[in-house]
Prior knowledge:
Layout (H helix, E strand, L loop, with lengths): L1 E2 L4 E4 L13 E7 L3 E7 L2 E2 L12 E4 L4 E4 L8 E9 L6 E10 L1 E2 L6 E4 L10 E11 L5 E8 L2 E6 L2 E5 L6 E10 L6 E10 L3 E4 L3 E2 L1
Parallel strand pairs: 1-10
Antiparallel strand pairs: 2-7, 3-4, 3-8, 4-5, 6-7, 8-9, 11-12, 12-16, 13-14, 13-17, 15-16, 17-18, 17-19
Subcellular location: Cell membrane
Protein name: CD86 protein
Membrane topology: Single-pass type I membrane protein
Amino acid sequence: xxxxxxxxxxxxxxxxxxxxxxxxxxxxxxxxxxxxxxxxxxxxxxxxxxxxxxxxxxxxxxxxxxxxxxxxxxxxxxxxxxxxxxxxxxxxxxxxxxxxxxxxxxxxxxxxxxxxxxxxxxxxxxxxxxxxxxxxxxxxxxxxxxxxxxxxxxxxxxxxxxxxxxxxxxxxxxxxxxxxxxxxxxxxxxxxxxxxxxxxxxxxxxxxx
Length: 209
C-alpha cells in the first residue's frame, strides 16, 4: 500500500541476494505483460525500453532489492513483476521472479453533517440531514448514522451516493438522513464512514439537538 503522491516501495528480495554481484545480473520490473518499469543491466541502469510514464520516476535500492516508484498515482495501481537473470554461458538464466500488488490510498476528509432544513424546528416534524466526505481512494464500503439518546444508540444505514472525479479518480460520498425531530431529550447524531477492514473508519463531529 502507498499513499497517493508518495513513494511506493516494491520488494524483490530473494535468498542469497547478498552473495550475488549485481554486475552479474539483469534485473527488470514490469507491470502487466508489456510495460517495462525499470531495468538494470549488469550493474547499469537502462532507459531504452522503459514505458514513458515511468521515466525519471523509479530508483532501485540494490542493498534492499527494492524498487522505489516516485509520486505514485492511482493509475499506478496493479500487479508488478520483478525478474532477475544471471549471466550464464549462452543466454542469461532466470534465478528469481516475484510479484507484488500495489494499492493506492488517499485520505478522505472528515465526514461533515449539514442541515437540509430551513426555518424553525418543531416537535414531530421531519429533520433532514446530509453527511459528506470527499477526496478519498479507494471507494468506501458504507456510511452509517449513529443516533444517541438517553444512553441508547441506534445505527442506521442509508443509501450512499458515490461520485468519482474523471481526472483525479478520487471519490466523494454523501448520505442523507430523515428522522422525526426529537422531543424532551438531548439527541446526538454522528455519521461514520467505513473505509474497509484495514483502513478503519472516520467519524463526523456530533450534532446535538
